Amino acid sequence: MASETALSQALVEPSLEGLHALSASAKRDESKVIIQLKSIGNAPILKQTRFTISAARPFNAIIQSLRTKLGYKAQEPLFAYISNSFCPAPDENVGDLFKELRSGRATDRQL
């Protein structure tokens, strides 16, 4: 019975570390990331190749923006790669991708 009470108290009373982690993750990243687009293969060339996007936006926002600019329909395939090497998941945050890939470019906010 005593172990059940301790377990129920542990589940009800959140730890201070847990509250700090939760509040830190709840804060929205207001920073911006510069996106530089380059066409590869026979992809159409865009007039504007650089734009800024909020770091909190998902990678899918870039894909949707490209679809609009290029006039692609939802059924048409569109592949967007980072550094000509990999295609991230559409729900991956742009800010998280930047943080993972910015090694060597600490002052440049470009992805």
Automatic annotation (TrEMBL):
GO terms for cellular component: Atg12-Atg5-Atg16 complex; autophagosome membrane; phagophore assembly site membrane. Coiled coil: none annotated. It is found in: Preautophagosomal structure membrane. InterPro entries: Atg12, Ubiquitin-like_domsf. The keyword Protein transport applies. The keyword RNA-binding does not apply. GO terms for biological process: autophagosome assembly; autophagosome maturation; autophagy of mitochondrion; glycophagy; piecemeal microautophagy of the nucleus; protein transport. Keywords: Autophagy, Isopeptide bond, Membrane, Protein transport, Transport, Ubl conjugation pathway. Its main location: membrane. GO terms for molecular function: Atg8-family ligase activity. It is a peripheral membrane protein. Forms a conjugate with ATG5. Ubiquitin-like protein involved in cytoplasm to vacuole transport (Cvt), autophagy vesicles formation, mitophagy, and nucleophagy. PANTHER family: AUTOPHAGY PROTEIN 12, UBIQUITIN-LIKE PROTEIN ATG12. Belongs to the ATG12 family. This is Ubiquitin-like protein ATG12.
